[in-house]
Write a structure and sequence with these properties.
Length: 135
């Protein structure tokens, strides 16, 4: 039985450099029903690392304190070690920071995003070139 050769794709058109809308790549990784890790949770983790606060990180993203805490608890529960460690407020003030596991998860996610963008550039440009030009 002979195999049918795989179809060849036409040469992609040149990218339209006149486009006004920037192309963005958003990657979400689904780990079964346990966790979805995407740009929002990655940005929340990065914000916690930068601000030392779950609430401040959530505020920067336009997220309620309750929602930010819920996402942190969801991520902490999904991994073998918590991603975020926090201390309660009080006279000395509270705070939060990424654990070594949290730093590793964020670094791996950012590296995955960079690799995906690097590898997908040709296809993204080809798709973009097939779109109608901006008015």
């Amino acid at each position: 039985m002979s195999e049918t050769p795989a179809p060849t794709l036409p040469e992609p058109p040149a990218p339209d450099l006149r486009r006004k809308d920037p192309v963005r790549l958003r990657l979400r990784v689904h780990f079964g029903d346990r966790l979805m890790l995407g740009p929002g949770k990655a940005d929340l983790l990065a914000g916690i690392a930068e601000t030392g606060s779950i609430a401040a990180s959530g505020r920067r993203m336009g997220m309620s304190y309750k929602r930010a805490w819920m996402l942190v608890e969801e991520m902490n529960a999904a991994f073998t070690a918590p991603l975020v460690a926090s201390t309660r407020g009080g006279a000395g003030g509270g705070g939060a920071h990424l654990t070594p596991t949290g730093e590793a998860v964020l670094a791996h996610y950012r590296a995955l995003m960079a690799a995906t963008a690097r590898v997908g550039t040709t296809e993204i440009d080809a798709i973009s070139a097939l779109m109608r030009p901006d008015p």
